[in-house]
Amino acid sequence: MESDQRRITDEACVLVEGPWTHRFVHANGSRFHVVEAGTGPLVLLLHGFPEFWWAWHEQLTALAEAGYRAVAVDLRGYGATDKPPRGYDGFTLAADVMGLIRALGERDAALVGAGAGGMIAWTTASFHPRMVRRLVVLGAAHPLRLRSAILTDLRGQTTASAQLLRFQLPRYEHQLTRDGAAAIGALLDAWTGPSFRQTKAYAEARDRYSEAMRIPQAMFCALEAYRWAFRSVLRWHGYRFTRQLREPIVTPTLQLHGALDTAALPSTAQGSGRYVLAEYEWRLLDEVGHFPHLETPETVTGEILRWIKA
């Protein structure tokens, strides 16, 4: 039992073999685990909660075959990336992405983000517009739109965000990781579309995510970003962040959203277009929940390719 406990909480569990290359790069003062496939213009893929780089395994190979350099990263605190106790504020997370693009030897990238990674993608495009060539966001409202909806849509987004409010509780990460991270499985059950939950692909994702979130400190780090988002509201740091986010996004933006998303409601996400000054498209995906890249990978890959080729 002891050896099994070490196995399932070791970072090696995210080093999944496949037609890609694992490596580590240093950016913004931390070491990031990245997974790379193909050559060509850079497409940087940012996963959400409670995921790790593997969330993009379908898109990695498809983008590489289409002539792109696809790179999926374990975000700060996740997977095999460094897990410092600090640095989970919006400024630092956006700077991580900017640093990664430079560390990969590129001047800019097409940026694709899902869920929490989508929030970081919105922020990066706002704060560092020259680094983001094209933007694709899945299952994530613009941060200002989400904040407004949580405060005003009491029967809608406020209720849907109840789990995020629980994340504010001290040591709540221990509740999420007990019993083999059963609570993570319950979250995935609640956030995915019913048809996808019946597939082998879902069962595999559920097992992999539950295992990866049991890596020591991974859950604490993941929750710190949510905690900062709430705690910063009444702080000067948060005021500066909000004020800077009001700058309109000048990167062409495609927003894909599951019609059955119960974490970020479609009605909340759809209002994000008001923050985009550049070309903008919204597409609602029927019968899809919070993880379009997993639930309908071929559709998402096709949309990404269409947008970044435009």
Rounded Rg: 18 Å
| Number of strand elements | 8
Number of helices, counting only DSSP H or I runs of 4 residues or more: 14
Class from helix and strand fractions:
alpha/beta
- Give the strand content: 15-25%
Q: Write the H/E string, N to C.
A: HEEEHEHEHEHHHHHHHEHEHH
Distance between the termini: 53 Å
Largest pleated sheet: 8 strands, mixed
Based on CA inertia axes, which overall geometry fits? globular
Instruction: Provide mean pLDDT, rounded.
Output: 94
Low-confidence stretches: 1-7
Spatial strand sequence of the major β-sheet: 1-2-4-3-5-6-7-8
Q: Level of helix content?
A: 40-55%
Structural features, described:
There is one protein chain. About 45% of the residues lie in helices and about 15% in strands. The protein has about 300 residues and is α/β, with parallel strands linked by helices. Strands 1-2-4-3-5-6-7-8 form an eight-stranded mixed beta sheet, sandwiched between helices. Helix 2 crosses helix 14. The longest helix has 20 residues. The protein is globular and about 45 Å long. The chain starts with a helix and ends with a helix. The N terminus is likely disordered.
Strand and helix layout:
Elements lengths: L1 H7 L12 E7 L2 E8 L4 E5 L10 H9 L3 E5 L16 H14 L5 E6 L1 H12 L4 E7 L4 H10 L1 H7 L1 H5 L5 H20 L8 H13 L5 H14 L4 H10 L7 E6 L7 H4 L10 E6 L6 H4 L1 H13 L1
Parallel strand pairs: 3-4, 3-5, 5-6, 6-7, 7-8
Antiparallel strand pairs: 1-2, 2-4
Short synopsis of the structure:
Helices cover 46% and strands 16% of the residues. It has helices spanning 2-8, 57-65, 90-103, 116-127, 143-152, 154-160, 162-166, 172-191, 200-212, 218-231, 236-245, 266-269, 292-295, 297-309, and strands at residues 21-27, 30-37, 42-46, 69-73, 109-114, 132-138, 253-258, 280-285. The chain has an 8-stranded mixed beta sheet, sandwiched between helices.
